[in-house]
Design goal:
Layout: H1 7-17, E1 26-31, E2 37-42, E3 48-53, H2 64-76, E4 86-90, H3 93-96, E5 100-104, H4 114-118, H5 122-141, H6 158-173, H7 179-190, E6 199-201, E7 210-213, E8 216-220, E9 227-229, H8 231-240, H9 266-277, H10 284-308, H11 318-322, H12 324-337
Antiparallel strand pairs: 1-2, 2-3, 3-5, 4-5, 6-9, 7-8
Helix pairs in contact: 5-9, 6-10, 7-10, 7-12, 8-10, 10-12
Length: 341
């Protein structure tokens, strides 16, 4: 048995909705935690599928979240943004205790950390970054209305809305005063750049949410934060997660695959994106600072919940976690004080 799966009911659903599948299945959880859960299903003929469902610990919701992810991936399927093929959505929580949707299995590996990235040949590492930035440029070039995602979210004032959201999150979760973060919040609110156009924004665009295969991006994963808004927020976030070997990133350094070396530099990614999209990137330091600010608010929320015991007896280095928000705040402040860095 695999937690989060009711095999008999799931296989009955497959028989009706994915008739080319051949139950019974072998089940394997391939991504867990507090985000949506991902399982690999292998049928009797050796074909593989992927099932996504909400986490086990949350109160069961409607099919909205799974339906939203299913809608996004389905809409992107015919485009040049690589996503897995989608086979169906089950909005009936009685089948598997929560809504879920099913995709095809795409061959590749997820580079969760530096150790995994270091195992790739040098030429593959060199090409992955260029392909990742090209995929991001293609995503941002899509017309949301043309692909059926024009009502996914509000299109304008993306950064202002995000600042309100994360400042509220910070106020609710902070466990101590962090003066640098207050300064960052004030500067971000004062300097919001003009948003030029509205794009589909992934919301968590980093190598850890990509399948890579032979030096290429085989599929972009984890669309649960996707919305409409300012595309440069995606770019700033990617750059913050594109650590070089000589950097010490916020949080756990080993979680940054690019720290293995051999990847394209941030400067190369910026140049490639600018050439491809013709966007003005003169304010990119602002978007990187905003990304660090968002990360600080998230980190403080996690730290607060661990301190309160909300995550039970899960083991974590509280000292390291406590340092995440202040470090992210300092990095954001440095970018705002030296905007051409």
């Amino acid at each position: 048995m695999v937690d989060g799966i009711r095999p008999a009911a799931v296989e009955r659903w497959f028989a009706e909705e994915v008739p080319h599948a051949k139950p019974p299945f072998e089940y394997e959880m391939i991504a867990g935690g507090r985000s949506n859960l991902t399982y690999k299903l292998k049928d009797a003929a050796g074909a593989a599928f992927v099932l996504r469902r909400p986490p086990l610990a949350q109160v069961l919701e409607s099919a909205h979240d799974m339906g939203r992810e299913h809608r996004i991936v389905s809409a992107l399927g015919p485009t040049e943004v690589p996503v897995p093929p989608v086979y169906g959505l089950c909005g009936d929580a009685s089948v598997n205790d929560a809504p879920f949707y099913v995709m095809g299995f795409v061959e590749g590996r997820v580079l969760h950390d530096r150790m995994l990235a270091a195992k790739l040949p040098d030429q593959e590492r060199a090409s992955i970054g260029i392909d990742a930035i090209d995929v991001l440029a293609r995503l941002h070039a899509l017309d949301p209305d043309a692909v059926g995602l024009g009502t996914l979210g509000r299109k304008q004032a993306y950064v202002a809305r995000q600042l309100r959201r994360w400042s509220k999150q910070w106020a609710q979760s902070k466990t101590r005063e962090i003066p640098e973060l207050e300064s960052v919040q004030r500067l971000l609110e004062e300097r919001i750049p003009e948003q030029v156009g509205a794009s589909i924004v992934h919301g968590d665009y980093r190598l850890g949410n990509h399948l890579v295969h032979h030096g290429r991006i085989a599929a972009v994963l984890d669309w649960e934060l996707c919305t409409l808004g300012d595309p440069l927020a995606d770019l700033g976030y990617l750059l913050n997660n594109w650590a070089s070997p000589d950097e010490i990133p916020a949080g756990a350094p080993n979680n940054h695959p690019t720290a293995a070396g051999g990847f394209a530099t941030r400067e190369q990614l910026l140049e490639r994106y600018a050439d491809t999209t013709a966007r003005d990137l003169s304010a990119i330091s602002y978007y990187r600072a905003f990304s660090h600010y968002r990360g600080a608010a998230i980190a403080e929320g996690v730290y607060s919940r661990f301190r309160s015991g909300a995550y039970g007896d899960q083991k974590v280095d509280l000292k390291l976690l406590a340092g995440s928000a202040p470090q992210a705040a300092r990095m954001a402040l440095e970018l705002l004080e030296t905007p051409n860095s």
